[in-house]
Design goal:
By secondary structure, the protein is α/β, with parallel strands linked by helices. It is built from twelve helices and nine strands.
Length: 278
């Protein structure tokens, strides 16, 4: 029997039923929340309903019925459309929490939070880390940023799918935390490829080498999960890092190199015989 959802948030809307949204729907339903779901792709309806969600074709209807809304769409423009002056999510009742789980620029979140506040709708960013397998397990790391009372109201929702919740401060700062995570993660993945490609060229047993490296200071999560990263969002993640660095006047030479390498790496990832070949 599902546990009763805690706090004043009983009904949670999920906008975006993709790789992260789908397992989040299931975790919320199992924790006792009523879960409303919208995605522009109606083909995701059956899976969302099988996980315990109630499908709504109209995102404005979802907004009006929800106590909190999790936005799990992929791109900045989609979030801006949802939260435009006449956007569907600003049809929410005053007091409804809108949480942006998507990875976007901090300035975007701050701008939209100011707009939503004018309607009495508190907006926070609640970025997630650790990937799809952690979403499946309900062990995501959530960085959450916004007014402390709003964050506390949202905590039971975040706790349905996160094993760790880390407040980062004012709105937009969770996006900074996620960008830092992404920057380091993709750098590790590139370094792993270069190290293991070198070992491969010299005839070492790559799996034995990987296991040995996991016992040293070279250990990293990307190495532990070698072979599992799709790199689906690497280009977008590193473009956000580059834009943020430019905005604050910071030169990040390694991040610049990683951004360039990721574009070339994605098609041949984990194929060490192809990595670095001219």
């Amino acid at each position: 029997m599902a546990n009763q959802a805690a706090g004043d948030v009983k009904t949670v809307g999920v906008v975006g039923a993709g790789r992260m949204g789908q397992p989040i729907i299931g975790h919320l339903a199992r924790k006792g929340f009523a879960v409303l779901v919208h995605d522009v792709d109606a083909g995701k309806r059956a899976t969302a309903e099988s996980r315990g969600g109630r499908w709504l074709a109209d995102p404005a209807a979802l907004a009006r019925e929800s106590d909190a809304i999790l936005v799990c769409v992929g791109y900045d423009r989609e979030i801006r459309e949802l939260l435009a002056d006449d956007g569907p999510l600003l049809q929410s009742r005053p007091g409804t929490i809108v949480a942006i789980l998507s990875t976007v620029l901090p300035a975007t979140v701050r701008e939209l939070a100011e707009r939503a506040a004018g309607r009495g709708v508190p907006l926070v960013d609640a970025t997630v880390c650790r990937g799809g397998w952690a979403a499946d397990e309900g062990t995501l790391l959530s960085f959450v940023a916004g007014d402390a009372p709003v964050v506390e109201r949202l905590r039971p929702v975040l706790g349905a799918y996160s094993s760790d919740i880390v407040p980062t401060g004012s709105v937009g700062s969770a996006q900074v935390a996620k960008a830092v995570n992404n920057m380091i993660m993709w750098a590790c993945l590139v370094a792993n490829h270069e190290g293991l490609a070198l070992a491969h060229r010299y005839g070492l047993d790559i799996e034995a080498m990987r296991r040995a490296l996991m016992t040293t200071h070279s250990a990293n999560k990307c190495l532990e999960l070698w072979g599992r990263q799709t790199m689906a969002w690497a280009d977008d993640d590193m473009a956000i890092v580059a834009a943020m660095a430019k905005d604050c006047g910071l030169t990040l030479r390694q991040a610049q190199a990683v951004q360039a390498i990721c574009s070339e790496l994605k098609p041949v990832r984990f194929q060490l015989d192809k990595y670095g070949s001219s």
